[in-house]
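Reviewers asked in the last cycle whether our approach scales beyond single polypeptides. To address this, we selected a multi-component target totalling 226 residues and predicted its structure end to end. The input consisted of the following lines:
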Amino acid sequence: AQSVSQHNHHVILSEAASLELGCNYSYGGTVNLFWYVQYPGQHLQLLLKYFSGDPLVKGIKGFEAEFIKSKFSFNMRKPSVQWSDTAEYFCAVNADFNKFYFGSGTKLNVKP
Amino acid sequence: NAGVTQTPKFRVLKTGQSMTLLCAQDMNHEYMYWYRQDPGMGLRLIHYSVGEGTTAKGEVPDGYNVSRLKKQNFLLGLESAAPSQTSVYFCASRPRTSGSYEQYFGPGTRLTVT
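The resulting structure, written as structure tokens, was:
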């Protein structure tokens, strides 16, 4: 079975600190990669996606992610977090046409 | 557009009871999915559908059944609920458009089985 690993389960940062969340997957073939965000009390929303091309992708709110094929990784970064970034972040992999695998999530708390 | 909606938002069941969760989308998407979210485990795919009248098993299908009688609706049924099915259930949809793999999620249904 495919697996998606998120290394940090809970991250606490102060505002303006930099953020990096790790994501590794196990599938060896062609993949589509995603980061979703779930703000408190809300549903999951797409933050970043990678299908092909430039391995560095930029999303909303200053988030970016880098696909490194040799490391099976899709790590996400933000140079300076805000209190409003407090949320849970999920990495996801689409390895077969309709099979999506999600990581266990990382809860980010940003202290004002 | 309402997007993806789920009914009900919360439900408490006793072991052995049955219920149906309804997912509705107004975006004319062909593909629909049911996931469960458990603490520390992320989302796991239960069943999915690629079109009206078709369904397929996902990663954790046991104990659940689904139906897609109308394109806009995807129902998830629990015939005999068990405490292990206590979870938050999310529905998602996406269009068939080539290269479009973004899923649109509903707000979730929190189910507790006692």
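Chain A touches chain B at residues 1, 4, 6, 9, 32, 34, 36, 42-46, 49, 51, 90, 92, 94, 98-105 (CB under 8 Å). We regard this as preliminary and will revisit it once experimental data from Aim 1 are available.
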